[in-house]
## 1
Amino acid sequence: MDLDFHAHFNSDDPEQVRKFVRNCEKNNCRAAMSGGLHYGGHDMVPNDRVIDFCAEYKDVLVPMAKVELWDKPVDLDSFHRWVDRGIRGVKCIYPYYEYDHDYYMPLYEECEKLGLPILFHTGNYRPNAEDVRARRPILKNMDPINLDRPARSFPNLHIVIAHLGTGFWRLQAAEMIKLHPNVYADLAGCGSWMGLSPERLAELLIPPIHFGDDPARFFRKLVFGSDCYVLYPEIQTQGKLHYEQILSKVSGSRELRDAVMGGTVSGWLA
């Protein structure tokens, strides 16, 4: 099966979850699911509930924990409790400070030790009611350049830049995955996988000068992530189609297609 590394648990209605799982099965695709609290002006399904559902549908759903990066050191006790319950990765979004703040580094160190990949939201984030109360930076905290310190400090930590920086920082995100061996990216979200042509991706990922190596090698740093939701499973179907269309235009390699569409990530989640 393929593996969608970027999926959201935004409903704990059992029937909606069953519909989502059936859609994954139709797509021959597993999904790495993250929920969690503190998403700006709204919350999703709490981590423990996500873990419960993933255990029920363990052949299709893989549990991720959304870890809160806030205005104090990360609660590693809660994190280790989720680890003990079987999470296979971490999702980080909407941090109070920039991603490379000292408060957050112990979490990254623990993830490296445990072999847990981290998916970092980068770039665009819609305004919400919380912005008026908090009056703090949002977008600049999620600039991909803030992942340079974690990537250098923890070279065995698998880092995925969600959305390839969106329209704000696509160049920076592309340069990050070319610079750091342990940094990858997805094209998650309709604004990313529908907004990037194969030609523009090639401009971002293929070096202008080749030294006898594979000019498309950095396409192997992409991982399939659709940004689908339990309530909107069709996004996964659309995202998978667009990814495969892009890859078919870049390269006819079955090996590249299988690596991007889940092979790479499956090795991290084993």
## 2
Amino acid sequence: MKLLRSVLILLFFSISMHATDKLFFLPQDQEAVSARVLKEINISRKSIVIVMHDFTYKKIALDLIRAKKRRNLDITVFLDFKENNKNSIVDLLRKNKIEVKLITSTLHASFILFDEDILMFGSLNLNKSAFKSNYEVLMFSDDSKNIKKALLFLEKTLKK
């Protein structure tokens, strides 16, 4: 009985310490990814940081604006200057008090950090093609090591 209890305790701790990662492939998983992105935007309590090469998907921009108004979230969007300097989404976000920083170096990184708890990363950009027709790979992770690396990237690379 003691051995069984020890094994169960060990199993519980090994499962609870392991991060939950969820991998998606688009376009097959487009509905699941759209739902998950919307869910993460809606349940974020403090902050959302977006790092993208391209952001033209108005539906996601409007979801961000609604979340900002509901909870006064701290939302910052880092985008590639060449792709987005004449982008109406940038104007829409800024008009709604969402901070947008255009990066002059080529920015191909693609990730979103929700409340510094969930990291979404992969090849996905925030445009309709990425969700509906492109072949993309995307992962959601709550692994603290991945989140710390993303935060370090933000601090050392983008916020300087």
